[in-house]
Every structure is written in structure tokens, then in C-alpha cells.
């Protein structure tokens, strides 16, 4: 959508153009393009009078979802206004109502200069497909955002792979199925690829390594299978990877450690196995590492404590064994730490309770033991966000009274030796793989930061 100042700017320009050619009352727009625009809007909107109401959509009778730009065709000819952006969504002023039989008209081809097309929440009732012929090498489309359209079915058109001008491709929250086309790897200018919340299946193609400009890769909430492609390691500019909620198998590839710009990595709710590769120790910018609900069945590596930018670390239900490395106490930025439903044993490092920003700590359903040695200030700060229940060998120290220990659901260390640790693993008492979900994924940034009023200073 055009920002207001630029739109006003173009309206002024448009007025100049129209007045300078006032003798023949041209709308500042070619007749064929105006006709194409009318057909596109007619196919989408529940307003049969759109054309009559907006006879000069670039100038006198603008429509908020359209942006026009002046494009000069040679020195002699007059500059002409062309539609460059078309946006339909709930965020425009007086949101347009899409008709129940709305579809994407091939008349878009009559708008040769449009470089941004976004249609959000429009195709609801009807069963609509993305028309393959409107994309291809002739297109100058840089942004294609068609999302939150439950009525959008079919496969991702192969012609999109030839639209090499694309920088943003978002087809999120539709009902697309089929595979991720290999050809998409040819989109060398693509910076953002979002195919989340669809019904895509098959493997993530190796060809994805060709997306040399990619910063955001989101294919979460699909049915993608197979292993993570090694070619991921070639996407050196990636800052966010979200492949959560799929059916991916195999190991976390060590090449992910090459992605030095990575801030957000979500591989949760898949079928990935351990170990956690040492190479991840190079991801110094990483702030979000979400791996919960994967049968990693491995140890927590010591190096995780050196990822000092980590803010959210979630490894619930990963079949983790071994102890919590004391190095975790270096994670000064950590706000959320989820280690629940694993098979961790040994004591809880007391200095975890000294992490200055921590406000959610879930250690429940493990085999942790010994004295829980947190300050009462820490316990008060976290309140209900501290959960260490379901660890049979754990007891609370002398700094806590009976009430606190009842509140935490952990008995006091009455007789230190009687109740103290037996650090054997009870491998079979806790299922590695369950369907339990912590429901933290949809808007992770926001949900995580709501606690402890941290939003204010982040
Ligand atoms: C469309 O235009 C006709 C005549 O111009 C008018 O009678 C009718 O009310 C208009 N419909 C809408 C939805 O604006
Ligand atoms: C995905 O496919 C399944 C079965 O094929 C169907 O039940 C489900 O509604 C589909 N989901 C979407 C978002 O289209
Ligand atoms: C995970 O993989 C194992 C074997 O590799 C398989 O038995 C199991 O059904 C898979 N689970 C899911 C949720 O895909
Ligand atoms: C943490 O992230 C910031 C900003 O991305 C970066 O400047 C800093 O170098 C990172 N810390 C380390 C230890 O790399
Ligand atoms: C901690 O994890 C357990 C097990 O996954 C879960 O049942 C519980 O609700 C969590 N506690 C908090 C405070 O989130
Ligand atoms: C600890 O384990 C040993 C054997 O491994 C057993 O003999 C002992 O009774 C256990 N102690 C407690 C307190 O469970």
C-alpha cells in the first residue's frame, strides 16, 4: 500500500498531468490499462460500480489500495501514470469487501508495470487457484503477498520460478498443497520466502541453496518430509529460519552453523534426532532457538552457554539426557528457558537463579535431584512462571518456608541424605516423544516477552 505522503505526491503529479492534457480529458492512464484494472477489481470486489466510482483511479477518484507511478516512455511522449501496486486487505481505509465468488483475474496482465500485488483475507468461500499465466519472465513483480485466503487451493505455480524480479514471496495461510517447486531456487533476488500454514508435502528441495539473497525462510506448519537439505548452509544471509510443525527427520545438519547472521531458528515439532551439532557454537547472534518436541535423545552441549545473545531457548520434550551444563549461567540475555519433559538428571545449577533477565523457567518432568538453591527474590519474581515440579529427587533448601515449598510442589530437604540424589537415569519412566504442546509458537516474539513487563525496555 502506498504511504500517504507518496500517494499525495502522485496525486499532485497526476493533477499536473491531467491539466496539461486537459483538452482531451485523458485520465492520465492508458485506456487498456484502465480496462484491465476494472476487470481485476470487478473479479475481486463486491461492488459492481467500482469503475463508475473510480473513473480516475490514479488521480481524481483514488482508491486506497492502488498506487500509481509516473513512467516516462521516451523523451517526446507525455509521461503516463501506471498502476504499480495493488493491495486488498483489512488494513486499508474502508476495507474492501471481496465477493464470495472472488477470483484473481488474468487481466492483471494488462497492468504491465505492477510490481507489488497483495491480497489478504479475500478468497474465503470460493475455491480459487493462482493463475499460472500471470507470472513468468515477462513480469516485473517484486512483491507477491497472497495470504490468509482459506479458499486458495492448488499447487504453487511453476511460473513463479521464472518471476526472477521477486524479492518477497508470501503465500502463507492458504490451502496450498503439493511440493515446494525446485525452480524457486532460481529466485536469486528473493529476500523473504514465507510458505507457512499450508498443506505442502514432499521434501524441501536442495535447489533452495540458490536463494542467495534470502534473509527469511518460513515453511512452518506444513507437512514437509525428509531431511533438512545441506544446501541450507549456502544461504549466508539468512536471519530467520522457521521450519517448525512439519514432519522433518534426520539430524540437524551441521552446516547450519555457517549461517552467522541467524537470529531466529525454529525447528520445533518435527522428528529430528541428535546430536546438537557443535558448529552451532558459531551462531553468536542467535536469540531464539526453539527445538521442542523432537526426539533428539542427546545431551545438552556445554557450548550452548556461549551463545550469549540467546533470549529464548526451548528444548521441551526432546529426550534430553545428562545434566544441565553450568555454562548456562552465562546466558545473561535469557528470558525464557524451557527444559521440561526430558530425562535430565543431577542438580539444578544454583546460578541459574542469578540470570538477571530470566522470567520463565520450566524444569518440570525430569529426573533432577538435590537441593533447589534459588533465592526467594528469584522465586517471587518468576511466580507461576517457575515450574520445577515432577522431579522426584528435588527438594527445597532452608531459605524457603513450608509455604513456598508447597507452592512449588517440592518437599523441603528435611533430611538431606535420605531424599538426596540418586543420579541414575530412569530412561523408561518418561516418554521421549509425546503430543504435548506448549502452545507457544504462533507469535513467539510477543508471547515470550509479555512476561515480567519486559516489552517496555526491549
Ligand atoms: C450502482 O450504480 C447505480 C446507478 O449508477 C445505483 O443505482 C446503485 O445504487 C449503485 N450500487 C452501489 C452498490 O453503489
Ligand atoms: C490439509 O489437508 C487435510 C487432508 O488432506 C485437510 O483435512 C485439511 O483441511 C487441509 N488443511 C488446509 C489448511 O488446507
Ligand atoms: C518419527 O520417526 C519415527 C521413525 O523414524 C517414526 O516411527 C515416527 O512415526 C515418526 N513420528 C512422527 C510424528 O512423524
Ligand atoms: C549479539 O548480537 C548483537 C546484535 O546482533 C551483535 O552486535 C553482537 O556482536 C552479538 N554478540 C556476540 C557475542 O556476537
Ligand atoms: C511446564 O512444563 C510442563 C510439562 O510440559 C507443563 O505441563 C507445565 O504447564 C509447564 N509449566 C509452566 C508454568 O508453563
Ligand atoms: C540409590 O540407588 C542405590 C542403587 O543404585 C540404592 O541402593 C539406594 O537405595 C538408592 N537410594 C535412594 C535414596 O533411593
UniProtKB/TrEMBL annotation:
- What's an example Gene Ontology biological process for this entry? detection of stimulus
Q: Which Pfam families match?
A: LRR_1 (PF00560), LRR_8 (PF13855)
Recite the UniProt keywords alphabetically: Cell membrane, Glycoprotein, Leucine-rich repeat, Membrane, Receptor, Repeat, Signal, Transmembrane, Transmembrane helix
Localization, per the record, is: Cell membrane
Question: Topologically, how does it sit relative to the membrane?
Answer: Single-pass type I membrane protein
What range does the record give for the signal peptide? 1-22
Q: Which GO terms describe its cellular component?
A: plasma membrane
Give the matching SUPFAM superfamilies: L domain-like
Where mainly located?
A: membrane
**Which InterPro entries did the record assign?**
Leu-rich_rpt, Leu-rich_rpt_typical-subtyp, LRR_dom_sf, RLP_Defense
TM segment ranges: none
Coiled coil segments of this chain:
none
UniProt KW Transcription keyword: no
Entry's PANTHER family? Answer: OS01G0750400 PROTEIN (PTHR48064), RECEPTOR-LIKE PROTEIN 51-RELATED (PTHR48064:SF1)
Protein name from the UniProt record: Piriformospora indica-insensitive protein 2
Organism this protein belongs to? Vitis vinifera
Amino acid at each position: 500500500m502506498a504511504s500517504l505522503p507518496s500517494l499525495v505526491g502522485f496525486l499532485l503529479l497526476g493533477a499536473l498531468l491531467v491539466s496539461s492534457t486537459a483538452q482531451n480529458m485523458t485520465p492520465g492512464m492508458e485506456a487498456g490499462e484502465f480496462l484491465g484494472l476494472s476487470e481485476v477489481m470487478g473479479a475481486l470486489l463486491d461492488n459492481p460500480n467500482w469503475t463508475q466510482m473510480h473513473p480516475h483511479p490514479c488521480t481524481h477518484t483514488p482508491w486506497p489500495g492502488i498506487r500509481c507511478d509516473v513512467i516516462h516512455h521516451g523523451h517526446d511522449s507525455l509521461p503516463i501514470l501506471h498502476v504499480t501496486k495493488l493491495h486488498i486487505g483489512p488494513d486499508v481505509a474502508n476495507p474492501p469487501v471481496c465477493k464470495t465468488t472472488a477470483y484473481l483475474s488474468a487481466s492483471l496482465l494488462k497492468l504491465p508495470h505492477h510490481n507489488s500485488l497483495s491480497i489478504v483475507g479475500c478468497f474465503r468461500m470460493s475455491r480459487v487457484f493462482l493463475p499460472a499465466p500471470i507470472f513468468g519472465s515477462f513480469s516485473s513483480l517484486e512483491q507477491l503477498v497472497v495470504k490468509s485466503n482459506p479458499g486458495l487451493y492448488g499447487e504453487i505455480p511453476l511460473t513463479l520460478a521464472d518471476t526472477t524480479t521477486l524479492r518477497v514471496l508470501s503465500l502463507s495461510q492458504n490451502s496450498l498443497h503439493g511440493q515446494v517447486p525446485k525452480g524457486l531456487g532460481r529466485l536469486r533476488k528473493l529476500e523473504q520466502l514465507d510458505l507457512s500454514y499450508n498443506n505442502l508435502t514432499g521434501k524441501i528441495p536442495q535447489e533452495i541453496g540458490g536463494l542467495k539473497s534470502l534473509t527469511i525462510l518460513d515453511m512452518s506448519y506444513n507437512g514437509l518430509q525428509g531431511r533438512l537439505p545441506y544446501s541450507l548452509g549456502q544461504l549466508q544471509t539468512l536471519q530467520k529460519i522457521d521450519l517448525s510443525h512439519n514432519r522433518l527427520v534426520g539430524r540437524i545438519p551441521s552446516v547450519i552453523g555457517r549461517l552467522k547472521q541467524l537470529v531466529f531458528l525454529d525447528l520445533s515439532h518435527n522428528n529430528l534426532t541428535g546430536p546438537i551439532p557443535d558448529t552451532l557454537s558459531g551462531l553468536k547472534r542467535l536469540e531464539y532457538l526453539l527445538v521442542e518436541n523432537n526426539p533428539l535423545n542427546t545431551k545438552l552441549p556445554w557450548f550452548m552457554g556461549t551463545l550469549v545473545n540467546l533470549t529464548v531457548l526451548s528444548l521441551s520434550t526432546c529426550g534430553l539426557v545428562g545434566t544441565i551444563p553450568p555454562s548456562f549461567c552465562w546466558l545473561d540475555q535469557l528470558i525464557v528457558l524451557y527444559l521440561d519433559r526430558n530425562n535430565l538428571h543431577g542438580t539444578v545449577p544454583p546460578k541459574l537463579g542469578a540470570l538477571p533477565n530470566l522470567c520463565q523457567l520450566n524444569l518440570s518432568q525430569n529426573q533432577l535431584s538435590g537441593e533447589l538453591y534459588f533465592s526467594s527474590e528469584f522465586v517471587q519474581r518468576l511466580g507461576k512462571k517457575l515450574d520445577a515440579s515432577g522431579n522426584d529427587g528435588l527438594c527445597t533448601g532452608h531459605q524457603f518456608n513450608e509455604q513456598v515449598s508447597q507452592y512449588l510442589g517440592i518437599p523441603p530437604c528435611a533430611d538431606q541424605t535420605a531424599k538426596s540424589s540418586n543420579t541414575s537415569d530412569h530412561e523408561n519412566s518418561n516418554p521421549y516423544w509425546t503430543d504435548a504442546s506448549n502452545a507457544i509458537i504462533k507469535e513467539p516474539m510477543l508471547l515470550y516477552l509479555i512476561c515480567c513487563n519486559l516489552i517496555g525496555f526491549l
